[in-house]
Write a structure and sequence with these properties.
By secondary structure, the protein is an alpha/beta fold. The protein has 20 helices and 18 strands. The chain is elongated and about 100 Å long.
């Protein structure tokens, strides 16, 4: 589907072409004079313009030159009932993409020309997202996990993907929020349309507004041409708005209006443009706290969180760590052309017991580092970072008070394991054997408690 503008002083021609291309699935607008066409071109961006050459009050050549000045990426198709070699040469020199002669086969020839241009439009838009898509080759191209919590999320994705409801994904940094958003998009009817991402925390307010809504030539210093915003670029597809919690109050008001009305107004324009976009937002912030302290609008929160998804941190789904570690190992082993076959049990145990403040992203970086450093057939604990191996080069003053280490040394891991088991048993005894209550007493999630209890044979 492309956005078309048809320019012709003959209303019958305009009506015929409007009906023809609407049936083809395109969005179509009509102008009956060069002046009306200029006003429309100034107010919004068209993928393709079909214009007659000879019209009262100007010509299609004027429309062509104006369109290419305002929006160089727009395709322009000239049609004429009086073809001349001079006009054809002038059209090509001015940047016309097609030159079609009016006749009995006008609609058929224009259909073919528009299909060709529309395909180029699609390819050009896809090229704009190439870097994002290529990240799949060096990052997760699916979500890995077999824990009960992740299976619930898989089922939820499968259920909500076919809908167009907005989704709010929350969770700590590195838990895979973009992967979930992409999975929702790719399993929806919008999968053939763009999936566009923007980090709302990476732009100051004025730049974020122009990125999202676009701008018109002359809207501000340096605005030398019309530019569509990400809402327009994502039309028919999905816009993933990461770090939505960092958006300023002013931008929150503007975004709320777009979500409510389904229209955007580019900077410097007085006209609004309809957009059909599924918005998936994500944040690592506590929205209840943000709303209570006046940093985030409650009405916008409810607009965004039609379907909320809470991603668990990696420490709360430790049973997925071996699966994820082997997944990353296989990928980096191939990319680095190494013959590493697995991970030694002790190294895997260290990975399973580490807290992973950076979540899945930190685990991915750790395995990449380990594969790069390992010279043997198995990843050993020696190539793991010191913080994961449990080695500390520095102890803050005061932290060691009351600690006694025997002269002959001690098995620290065994000591920690024994202490952990002792506290698990004590909590169970205090909770009367009720595991959920014991987990609450230790400020642990039930899954983490169950994992630790299994590990220590409790």
């Amino acid at each position: 589907m492309a956005h078309l503008l048809i320019v012709d002083d003959q209303k019958a021609i305009c009506e015929l072409l409007e009906i023809t291309f609407r049936k083809e699935g395109h969005r179509v607008e009509v102008a009956n004079s060069p002046e009306a066409a200029r006003r429309r071109i100034e107010s919004q961006i068209f993928d393709i313009i079909i214009t007659d050459v000879r019209m009262p009050g100007g010509s299609g050549m004027d429309v062509l030159r104006f369109a290419k000045e305002i929006s160089p990426s727009t395709f322009v198709i000239l049609i004429t009932g009086v073809p001349t070699l001079e006009t054809a040469i002038d059209a090509v020199n001015a940047g016309a993409d097609r030159y079609v002669i009016k006749g009995d086969k006008l609609t058929d020839e224009l259909r073919q020309a528009v299909r060709t241009c529309a395909e180029h439009v699609k390819l050009r838009k896809e090229a704009g997202y190439l870097k994002r898509e290529l990240r799949k080759l060096t990052g997760l191209d699916n979500i890995v996990g077999q824990s009960p919590r992740m299976r619930q999320i898989f089922e939820l994705i499968h259920t909500i993907a076919p809908q167009s409801s907005r989704v709010l994904i929350t969770g700590e940094s590195g838990t895979g929020k973009e992967l979930v958003a992409r999975a929702i998009h790719e399993n929806s009817a919008r999968s053939g349309e763009p999936f566009i991402t923007i980090n709302c925390g990476a732009f100051p307010e004025t730049l974020l507004e122009s990125e999202l809504f676009g701008y018109r030539k002359g809207a501000f210093t340096g605005a030398n041409e019309n530019r569509e915003g990400l809402f327009q670029a994502a039309h028919g597809g999905t816009l993933f708005m990461d770090e939505i919690g960092n958006m300023t109050p002013t931008m929150q008001v503007k975004l709320y209006r777009v979500l409510q009305e389904g229209k955007v107004r580019p900077l410097g324009s007085t006209e609004e443009i309809d957009v059909d976009v599924r918005v998936i937002a994500a944040t690592n912030k506590d929205f209840e706290k943000e709303i209570a302290e006046g940093r985030f609008r409650e009405d916008l929160y409810y607009r965004l969180s039609v379907i909320p998804i809470q991603l668990p941190p990696l420490r709360e789904r430790r049973e997925d760590i071996p699966l994820l570690a082997r997944h990353f190992l296989e990928r980096f082993r191939k990319s680095m052309e190494k013959s590493i076959e697995g991970i030694v049990p002790e190294a895997l145990r260290r990975l399973e017991t580490y807290e992973w403040p950076g979540n899945v992203r930190e685990l991915e970086n750790t395995i990449e580092r380990a594969v790069a450093l390992e010279s043997g057939k198995l990843i050993s604990q020696e190539v793991l970072p010191d913080k994961i191996k449990g080695v500390s080069h520095e102890m803050p003053a005061g932290d060691h008070r009351g600690v006694t280490i025997p002269p002959e040394g001690m098995d620290f891991e065994q000591f920690l394991a024994a202490e952990e088991r002792r506290y698990l048993l004590a909590a169970l005894e205090k909770a009367g054997g009720v595991r959920t209550r014991a987990a609450e007493l230790l400020k642990m999630s039930y899954r983490s408690f169950r994992h630790s209890a299994k590990k220590h044979g409790v």
